[in-house]
Specification:
The chain has 397 residues and is of the alpha/beta class. The protein folds into three domains: 3-12 and 228-308, Helicase, Ruva Protein, domain 3 (Orthogonal Bundle); 23-221, 3-Layer(aba) Sandwich (Rossmann fold); 313-394, Winged helix-like DNA-binding domain superfamily/Winged helix DNA-binding domain (Arc Repressor Mutant, subunit A, Orthogonal Bundle). It is built from 16 helices and ten strands. It has helices at residues 23-37, 55-68, 84-98, 103-113, 138-158, 175-190, 210-219, 230-242, 250-260, 264-277, 285-308, 313-324, 332-339, 347-355, 375-382, 390-394; strands at residues 44-48, 72-77, 119-121, 129-131, 163-168, 195-201, 220-221, 330-331, 359-361, 367-370. The strands form three sheets. Strands 2-5-6-1-7 form a five-stranded parallel beta sheet, with helices on both faces. Strands 8-10-9 form a three-stranded antiparallel beta sheet. Strands 3-4 form a two-stranded antiparallel ribbon. A hairpin with a 5-residue loop joins β9 (359-361) and β10. α3 packs parallel to α5, α9 packs parallel to α11 and α12 crosses α13. The mean pLDDT is 94. The structure holds adenosine-5'-diphosphate and magnesium ion.
Length: 397
């Protein structure tokens, strides 16, 4: 059928026509914004999940919701080099401009920010901000960020608006900045300011301890999102086509569900190719059958190969050994045994894979898993496993 009308969205962050299975998170966010508007507190979310399960799409949906409720929103995709406090200061500056405050209100904001150590007013008028965290201790960073959010929150509230920060790839957040943000949001919430953050990232978001941890538990829930249930996966696959009066044969849907196993990226990619290959409605089982290898090839290039290119030879061998064990999570010792090495000999390789975002340490101590679903299958397709020689095996303790 005509690719121009193809409704599927197999691209990172692309809003699918049917946002299946996320009603709970969307409802929590709707309530959150509604309550912030009334000066009431509510928990926000730090969403955790593997690559391709729909975290970015969900943050984008939150953004739309907040904007349609008259809030200002700021979306950031963090990288290992991001300075979140710097970015929030820039956002604050932009928000304060967009709020079109009166001259008196601007004076009030300036007065509130005048004495800060790390955040400086850049001019004699207006609200230009510069951030310098060098030499600042954590208490100062957190205190200054609190003052900034309080001033911003009060300004937004005076205009019946509010501010939502959307932070994607939050596993890259620096710990000092994470704790500072938590404590600043905690202050803002205590003062009933219409300000919040919602975040998403891989499962290994930095752990918090002590006060920061108890604040975070009050401010956020930590939902884990995964693949879709069978009903949601069916809706995600069938509905986009149905809206254009295109149906599937029941067996075609069953085949698609069993191949995609509820994983949103697979659903979008398979739907796209089944649509393009089909001659007319209903899309048949043969169409889906023919689309599977094409979709697989597209997934290999778009989500797996780009990642493995970042790995060294040693790291690839490690991942291939993981895959040899079947589905994860994997005990580090078992991976080592598959390589004929000692766990300690290859712990650096493991750490590099984690730093590169290819693997993560699961909650069970000493276990790792891939950050992309079904990476084990890809590794088995991608390269042969070489069992360690008997000499290598003997060196094992
Ligand atoms: N709830 C959903 N229902 C159907 N498709 C979805 C859903 N969430 C995400 N997708 C699709 O899955 C893919 C990955 O989504 P994305 O938000 O980029 O994942 P993540 O940020 O978790 O890596 C995209 O092609 C997107 O259109
Ligand atoms: Mg994402």
């Amino acid at each position: 059928m005509d690719p121009i009308g193809n409704p599927y969205t197999p691209n990172a962050g692309s809003r699918p026509p049917e946002l299946a299975g996320r009603a709970g998170e969307l409802e929590q966010f709707r309530v959150l914004v509604g309550r912030l508007k009334r000066g009431a507190a509510e928990q926000s979310m730090i969403i955790r999940g593997l690559r391709g399960v729909g975290k970015t799409v969900l943050l984008n949906a939150f953004e739309d919701r907040a904007e349609s409720d008259g809030f200002l929103t700021y979306y950031h995709e963090l990288t290992p080099d991001s300075s979140l406090v710097g970015e929030i200061a820039r956002d604050a500056q932009s928000a304060l401009a967009r709020l079109k405050l009166s001259a008196r209100a601007v004076k009030g904001v300036r007065a509130a920010l005048e004495h800060l150590g790390t955040i400086r007013l850049t001019g004699p008028e207006g609200i230009g901000l510069a951030v310098d965290l060098r030499q600042a201790d954590e208490g100062t960073i957190a205190g200054d960020l609190s003052e900034l959010l309080l001033a911003l929150g009060a300004a937004a509230a005076s205009k019946r608006s509010g501010v939502v920060f959307l932070l994607d790839e939050v596993q890259f957040i620096k710990e000092v900045e994470y704790r500072s943000l938590i404590s600043a949001l905690h202050r803002a919430t205590q003062k009933n300011m219409p300000i919040t953050a919602a975040a998403a990232g891989l499962p290994q978001i930095p752990r918090l301890t002590g006060e920061a941890r108890s604040y975070a538990e009050r401010l956020f829930t930590f939902p884990v999102i995964a693949g879709l249930s069978e009903d949601d996966a069916r809706a995600a696959f069938v509905e986009p086509a149905r809206r254009q009066q295109v149906d599937y044969e029941p067996d075609a849907v069953a085949l698609a569900l069993s191949w995609t196993r509820g994983y949103p990226f697979y659903i979008q990619q398979l739907g796209k190719h089944a649509w393009n290959l089909a001659k007319s409605s209903p899309i048949t089982t043969e169409d889906v059958q023919a689309a599977i290898p094409v979709a697989q090839q597209a997934l290999d290039t778009s989500i797996y190969e780009v990642r493995i290119q970042r790995a060294t030879r040693e790291e690839r061998r490690y991942m291939r050994a993981m895959a040899e064990l079947g589905e994860g999570p994997y005990r580090s010792g078992d991976v080592a045994a598959k390589l004929g090495r000692r766990t300690t000999e290859i712990s650096m390789t493991r750490q590099h894979l984690i730093d590169k975002g290819l693997a993560y340490a699961t909650e069970d101590y000493g276990h790792v898993d891939f950050t992309v679903p079904r990476f084990d299958e890809f590794m088995r397709r991608h390269m042969p496993y070489r069992a360690p020689s008997s000499a290598q095996r003997k060196r094992k303790p």
